[in-house]
Design goal:
18% strand; five-stranded parallel sheet
Length: 187
């Protein structure tokens, strides 16, 4: 059975990662860390060292980072400055390309306008800065941002205004499973 790897922050860990293994169980062996991949530097370090053996040889690696990085932490701005985020994400992409056959990046999901810490306009800027560079590298883009943006009130939990709602988890999991199946079927 072909191996698939899911990497990502809490949008994966608490969200689509809870459903994708079940959706793909008859087609793929799914591995994902039992941890939140948090921000880009955290993911880079853990992929480089601790998770490398679990990732190597994957047919498809589906990965997301960004919600932590784009989050506004104080008057100085985002947790990870946008240029630094792009730089480390490209390093992750280069590394993942050496470990798996296909790499998919899922754009960071939107937030409601009321969320002042993880502001939607900042998330959009981070996605817009990164996605063209990943495409140039041959990384497949799973545009969860645009998909979830079609109904933020339905797909994002209205209590924390950050994570996927139950409907959002189901919706995103289907989008992730579709992207993985498509990537695995292409030569």
């Amino acid at each position: 059975m072909k191996k698939v790897v899911l990497l990502g922050d809490s949008i994966r860990e608490l969200g689509y990662g809870t459903k994708v293994p079940e959706l793909l169980k008859d087609e793929f062996e799914v591995w994902q860390p039992n941890d939140n991949c948090r921000f880009a530097y955290f993911t880079f370090r853990w992929v480089m060292v601790d998770w490398r053996e679990n990732i190597e040889g994957a047919e498809v690696i589906h990965w997301n980072n960004g919600i932590w990085d784009a989050c506004i932490v104080d008057e100085d701005g985002s947790f990870t400055p946008k240029e630094e985020y792009v730089r480390v994400m490209l390093r992750i992409a280069r590394l993942l390309k050496t470990l798996g056959k296909k790499v998919i990046f899922a754009t960071t999901t939107p937030t409601p306008a009321e969320n002042t810490a993880a502001r939607d306009e900042v998330i959009a800027e981070y996605n817009e800065a990164l996605v063209p560079k990943l495409r140039e590298m041959g990384i497949i883009i799973n545009d969860l941002y645009s998909a979830v943006k079609t109904d933020v009130r339905k797909y994002i939990d209205q209590n924390d205004m950050l994570h996927l709602s139950k409907d959002g988890i189901d919706f995103a999991a289907e989008k992730v499973a579709q992207a993985i199946r498509k990537a695995a079927s292409e030569n």
